[in-house]
Amino acid sequence: MDYKQLISQLVYDNLEALDLTQEQIKYYLSTPPQPDLGDFALPCFKLSKVLKNSPINIADSLARKINQKPLPAELDKINAVNGYLNFYLNRPKFIKDVVDGYKNGAPKTDLGQGRVICIDYSSINIAKHFHMGHLSTTAIGGSLYRIFNYLGYKSIGINHLGDFGTQFGKLICAYKMWSSPQKLEKNGLNELHELYTRYHKKANTNPELDDIAREWSKKIEQNDPEAVQIYQKFKEITLENIGKIYQRLGISFDSYLGESFFADKVGPVVQKLEQKNLIQISDGAKVVNLDKYDMPPCLILRSDGASLYATRDLAAAIYRKDTYDFYKCLYVVAYQQNLHFRQLFKVLELMGYEWAKDLVHVSYGMVSLEDGAMSTRGGKMVKLIDVLDKAVEKIKNIIKEKNPNAKDIDQIAEAVGVGAVIFSSLCNSKIKDIVFTWDRALNFEGESGPYLQYTHARCCSVLKKSGADYNNFLLPQSLQDVKADFDIDDNTWTLIKHIDAFFDKIVLAAQDYEPSIIANAIMDIAKGYNKFYFDYKILDDDPKIQKARLLITLAVKNCLKTGMELLLLKPIEQM
Fold first, then answer.
1. Which pLDDT score is estimated for 553?
2. pLDDT reported for residue 475
3. Angle 162-165-166 from CA coordinates, rounded to 5°
């Protein structure tokens, strides 16, 4: 039951000579700050200008008209207070509708109708470790991938590899000078990281190294056998290492086409820009002037004819549209690249691509540890795998301390520890900078991933102890059949309303590209249920009361399970 739809239709039917649609009225509906003010409210000041009347008179008049006829079964009463038209739901019927509707998880939908959403995220760099700075793009992108699939879209996950550029010439130079196939085989990505760091330290005092590096870069572009073989080995080592981390995070991709794939596809892009008279020459370089859009020029080709990041991104966007015919194409990239994407989207628009409006930069803030930010070039870097391992070990110790006889401790610790790190990146608005702290991430009682997983396990335990086949539970037609001491108090009522709102929160998370909306929604449900759990005896002596409370528990469990899976967390059934 869409209660907002019902209420807005009721208001619409009782308004006269008003140039407003039922959907507009639905949009105006709000949730009062306190339960005693109703469950939904229409602020009539929004209608005052059109009706040329005071909000108080409008609310009073509507209340009189609507109350002249029997109210729908879903509503208990309607009143007008200080210009607000307040609607009170029939609590027993509402609870029945909600818990019956969430028996099998959140409602499914075909909202997306199979339309394609390309999501460019994670985009790791070849020959570099997966560090904490990659956490946000990977977690946000991976969560959006699941959210859009859940809503009936077809997500295409794209890992736009950083596998092109002069850094690989530098790395080959370092490898030839200070390493060997044996060292590379033994130390893997750690060896490449050390070589990269060592090169930049040495190049500061030995600039001739840059000349050697440029030669190796040219050899890669010219498909020199030795250069390509070394480069491919770097790529193989990186993807093998990173793949293990993606597996732990529950992340997969549909495409690993990176910059190198598009390096030879920039010609048609430049040609079209010239045909559209968009190219200007600036100090020998080719640029698109964006002065009239309050942006600096977009550099297309350097004076030596080399393509740039922006040029390859233009080619990649065109390729993705041709290949996937996407409905939207998302770029989950840090806010430092805001200007780059504004330029990219504007240039595509100027080239005549109408679908440029369907490109979205999903920007996010930076992640740092309590002792500061991270830099690969300077060697100050925190590897994500080290953070995951440390989180798992800390969780394992907590479980052993609290429940030394627990089974499957290793599997539980892996799910909870990894989930804690992921949730730390998704629980707040994506645009905020994040300072990762162990105490907050691993807290079983605060707003954390472990708290959600523990609450889900609590629901599973309660349902298991009931001994009932709760998947086949059905509430009576009305909870009026349950004794009055079922206690539909304001706290229980608020919990039910959080459950009811859960599906809408998933839709809103997709609209705003904001997984934290789901994180906040299931956190509200978890906190509400834990209060419900401590306030009432779930396994009550009265079978009808027990059934009602078990059904609320089941609805909570299913919301938490669905929400956590959309946030890349694994639901735990026992802890």
1. 92
2. 47
3. 135
Pick from 38, 57, 89: which residue ends a domain? Answer: 89
Total number of domains in the chain: 3
> Does 430 reside within a domain?
no
Given a cut of 50, the residues of the chain with pLDDT beneath it are 375-379, 475-478, 480, 483-485
172 and 83 part of one domain: no
Domain that holds residue 499: 449-566
85 and 170 in a single domain? The answer is no
Phi-psi sector, 381: left (phi>0), alpha (psi -120 to 50), beta: beta
Q: Please write the tens of the pLDDT for every residue from 387-430.
A: 999 999 999 998 888 888 878 899 999 999 999 999 999 998 88
| Tokens at 424, concatenated | 């730390």
Kindly state whether residue 333 falls inside one of the protein's structural domains.
no
**Pairing verdict, β 285-288 and 298-301:** antiparallel
**Rounded CA gap, 5 and 70, in Å?**
18
Instruction: Note the pLDDT of residue 537.
Output: 87
* Residue 457 CB-half CA count within 13 A: 16
Question: Hey, CA dihedral for 258, 259, 265, 266, is it positive or negative?
Answer: positive
Q: Please report which residue ranges of 377-436 form alpha helices under DSSP H.
A: 384-402, 409-426
What pLDDT shows up at residue 406? 79
Q: Do residues 556 and 467 both lie within one domain? A: yes
Which residue's entry shows tokens 């997709």?
510
Digit-coded pLDDT (tens) for 17-36 = 667 888 989 999 998 988 88
The CA distance from 436 to 422, in Å, is: 11
- 405: in domain: no
In sequence order, what are the beta bridge partners of 342?
A: none
Query: Per the domain annotation, does 342 fall within a domain?
Result: no
Which CATH number is 523's domain given?
A: 1.10.730.10
Mean pLDDT over the full length of the chain: 89
